[in-house]
Amino acid sequence: MFRKVKKRHSSSSSQSSEISTKSKSVDSSFGGLSRSSTVASLDTDSNKSSGNSTSETCAEFRVKYVGSIENLEFEMSRSLQEPLDLINYIDAAQQDGKLPFVPGDEEMILGVSKYGVKVASLDQCDVLHRHPLYLIVRMLCYDDGLGAGKNLLALKTTDAKQEECSIWVYQCSSSEQAQSICRVLSTSFDCALMSDKS
User: Most-buried pick from 15, 36, 49, 166 (CB within 10 A)?
Assistant: First the structure.
């Protein structure tokens, strides 16, 4: 069920929300599928800050919603600390039918600001998901492994009491778009930290 990482190269930026990019080749025990992907991971547990982000961040991206796994026990969240653990968990959920492999046809607007992440309909009349910044534990993007060049964006959140966690999965049009979302969210965390210090 779990994949073995053959090759890994990582680099990280000194920000309050650390982004690490890892190039790896992984084998899937589900179907012998081998894929090479880039993982951009945003870890909000880091306390580092670059101190060079002063503007309020607000950006919008068109994505598709794959699905979610909600209300997991918080102890489960502790076992999903590393990016590869989270990717493997999502893959297993797809194999078990808990998450679909591909999203629906409807595009949505994923907005990132200093307040968090908001997912709305294209006309923005309906807000479908709202993830406050302080409840986001991790965000990462990776190749979906289906050969179409699509990237998945996984968002792990917790509740205010940190008793449960949820995983939200969106499909991005490209790896560049997915990594851009991680970068913008990283800047949002920097801005929030600077606001707290001032």
Answer: 15
